[in-house]
Automatic annotation (TrEMBL):
It holds the Pfam family Dala_Dala_lig_C. One of its GO terms (molecular function) is metal ion binding. The keyword Cell membrane does not apply. Keywords: ATP-binding, Cell shape, Ligase, Magnesium, Manganese, Metal-binding, Nucleotide-binding, Peptidoglycan synthesis. One of its GO terms (biological process) is regulation of cell shape. This is Unannotated protein. The keyword Protein biosynthesis does not apply. Residues 18-225 form the ATP-grasp domain. Belongs to the D-alanine--D-alanine ligase family.
Length: 237
């Protein structure tokens, strides 16, 4: 059920996924990968790579989840500690320029071979948190969601179109949640795609689908139908 190995692994590695998104014309945050090996062999060279970017930066494990190991870096004195923390979770750390904006999420569901794209929802984060951190997501009841997001109609249409592009560009199937930042400059920046999003009745994915007229039980029915209709193959997704 859901995406196969290739699509799931590519989506999990944000550095790989970003390259594919960019190749399909989607805007991504500027950034660089710093491996644990590179950092150990030449910290100064790694810091030089990062110096072309403007602060604040975000440092995260390239293949992490739930924002664990993710740090907002305000200046160069905080960089080393953030990279070392990311390396605790993954030998690949992704350093990206920070983008000020709104957290927007879209649910995608495969129904009879076609894609249903939900209305976008906005994650509202308590102002005591600087970003959508692990603590903000799970430990403090610090987030709420506005579904649908209060956005202009043309922006909604573009975000939904880009969600479909993200899904198809990685060869996903079944379901996914696509996360964007709608920047203060009016740019739509894809952050990541989650091929197996949170799926409790109150999670964002089923909530987005419910607002688009598809119930929790209907989602499960469609996922089962999609899985049963898939032909077995070595490379099949």
């Amino acid at each position: 059920m859901g995406s196969g190995v290739l699509a799931s692994a590519t989506a999990m590695d944000k550095s790989f996924a970003k390259s594919i998104f960019s190749a399909h014309g989607m805007k991504v945050a500027e950034g660089v990968v710093i491996t644990a090996e590179k950092w150990a062999s030449s910290q100064s060279a790694c810091e030089s790579l990062v110096s072309i970017f403007s602060y604040p930066l975000f440092v995260k494990p390239a293949r992490g989840g739930s924002s664990r190991g993710t740090t907002k870096v305000h200046n160069s004195s905080e960089l080393a500690g953030a990279i070392q923390d990311a390396h605790r979770f993954d030998r690949k750390a992704l350093v990206e320029e920070g983008i000020s904006g709104r957290e927007i999420e879209v649910a995608v569901l495969e129904v009879d071979g076609a894609l249903v794209i939900s209305q976008p929802g906005e994650v509202i984060i308590d102002k005591k948190f600087e970003f959508y951190s692990f603590e903000a997501k799970y430990l403090d009841d610090a987030t709420t969601a506005n579904i649908p997001a209060n956005l202009p109609a043309d922006v909604i249409a573009e975000i939904r179109s880009e969600a479909q592009t993200a899904f198809t560009s990685l060869g996903c199937s079944g379901l996914a949640r696509v996360d964007f930042i709608y920047s203060d400059k009016g740019e739509i920046v894809i952050n990541e795609i989650n091929t197996m999003p949170g799926f409790t009745p109150t999670s964002m994915y089923p909530s987005l689908m419910a607002a688009s007229g598809i119930t929790y039980s209907e989602i499960i029915d469609e996922l089962m139908k999609c899985a049963l209709s898939r032909k077995n193959s070595v490379l099949g997704n």
